[in-house]
Prior knowledge:
The protein is of the alpha/beta class. It has helices at residues 2-31, 56-73, 91-96, 113-122, 172-185, 201-210, 254-261, and strands at residues 81-85, 105-110, 128-132, 158-163, 186-199, 229-230, 237-239, 251-253, 266-272, 286-292. The radius of gyration is 20 Å and the shape is globular. It starts with a helix and ends with a strand.
Amino acid sequence: MILGKICTRVLKKMGVGFYKLLDRFYITLDRKHILRTKTIRLIPTESNRRGGKYSYAEWAHVIGIFQTLMFIHLDKKDGNVILDVGCGTGLLGIASEPFLGEKGRYVGIDVTKKDIDFCRNHYPQPIFEFIHFNVNNPAYTPLRESKRLRWNLADGSFDLVTALSVWTHLSEEDALFYMMEVNRVLKPHGKAIITFFLLDELYQRSLDIRSNEKGRYHMTSQALWIFDQPAYGSDAWFCPKWAKVPENAIGVTSAGLNHLISRTKLNILTHYQGNWKEAPGIFFQDVLVFQKT
Length: 293
């Protein structure tokens, strides 16, 4: 049994190493066959594909989803100024590129300096700008002291704010604070596309699907997304049992969502259900589109 475990680990390491090598050759060859989109040419090699999406195919897939959402919801299709909160290694920067044009600009901010350093070297300047946001997050930057800092960005300066899997890692206080920051930096009538684990009626119904006749959840990958622990005592923000800190994964109730925007000028335009709730959806997490009045 011990020998079998050792062999499994060795084979796994060999497989990962082979994938890393193959990925570089594949991307080089694949770019020669891109005919109808220039966007995916910017997808990084595997060592810089992070943020819960490692596969080249999934990066291309998610880029397409959010590029479509931007096309649907941006009032103008060129010359946009876009802020990407929690930009990681630039997935939504890639999706944003067609909507920038010569007069537009993309700004990505992130708490992980390694990701910002990569982005500054990988994406073309000056149309892409990246800012290291040196602030504490218990899941990603627990050793930082600063908490809830305002973004060093001008009021009313962005047509669109995006945030892919950011509010799913924010406590109630942080979520409220940074939603007010979204409101502050958006232009009048500007839009925000933000993903959530929204604990709404569909989520509640999904719990019945995931439970057996004894009322216990099946141990599947979907059982990871059962938010039944109050996050820091909140009655609207919850995390799963497995979370070492609540910010590993946070869901918010419908009442919490309404409270989240109650101190802003943001209204919910559209809600695209997430397929994590055992139902069809355009993306794994819920996608909400907001507009500032």
